[in-house]
Specification:
Layout lengths: L1 E5 L4 H12 L3 E6 L2 H7 L4 E4 L5 H8 L4 E4 L8 H15 L4 E5 L27 H14 L4 E7 L12 E4 L11 H14 L5 E6 L1
Parallel strand pairs: 1-2, 1-4, 2-3, 4-5, 5-6, 6-8
Antiparallel strand pairs: 7-8
Helix pairs in contact: 1-6, 3-4, 4-5
Length: 206
């Protein structure tokens, strides 16, 4: 297996890459700053570039079997602009599987049928920009012919994997309040290897 990774120096992404290294799995990682990336993910094959540049995305995905995206929003539209580029490139090179990190806001609401959590009082966040960016990515993947999985953690504090992970398809587990970065990365890496949840969003919490 060879994994193409976007967002490889992010909080979840770098853990996924380093877990892959521990199991001798090859990784192509598209990064903006090679020097920073070499310190964080020394085992990865680094492609320095821009996720909005189709040539850089092609260089990252070509020759890989699966894509992992830990791209965040960070008050930019990078995610919504990048996802169509990634999807087109995956189609071009016949790469079928992609696992991404989303947000609990795009899970189904338990209190308002046919609404997303971020559209209801279930979500405590007042700003909806990040959720709207992740919703765009979800819709783009849903309309693609790819085998996709979106992992949707709730509040994501730093912390190591403790193994106390609850999950639910398309919903946040009841009374879910948080899940560590370490546990989220572990769940993501397990999904890369096992392909348990095709074509769904998966809510994650402790």
């Amino acid at each position: 297996m060879k994994i193409a990774v976007f967002g490889a120096t992010g909080r979840v992404g770098n853990r996924v890459v380093n877990q892959a290294a521990e199991e001798k799995i090859e990784v192509n990682a598209l990064v903006r700053d090679r020097t920073k990336a070499q310190e964080m993910i020394p085992s990865a094959h680094l492609i320095e570039g821009d996720v909005l540049n189709p040539e850089d995305v092609e260089a990252t995905i070509h020759g890989c079997d699966i894509v992992f995206s830990g791209l965040g929003t960070d008050k930019t539209t990078t995610l919504s602009q990048a996802m169509p580029v990634i999807i087109r490139t995956m189609d071009k090179y016949d790469v079928e599987r992609i696992i991404t990190i989303g947000t609990a806001g795009i899970l189904n609401s338990r209190i308002e049928e046919k609404s997303y959590r971020f559209q209801t009082s279930e979500s405590k966040r007042r700003q909806t920009f990040a959720a709207e960016e992740h919703l765009f990515a979800f819709k783009a993947l849903s309309q693609s012919g790819l085998s996709w999985t979106i992992l949707c953690p709730t509040y994501l504090p730093d912390g190591e994997a403790a193994g106390s992970i609850r999950h639910e398809v398309n919903y946040l587990p009841a009374d879910g309040k948080k899940i560590t970065v370490g546990d989220t990365a572990q769940f993501a890496f397990d999904e890369i290897k096992k392909a348990r949840f095709p074509q769904v969003r998966v809510g994650l919490s402790e």
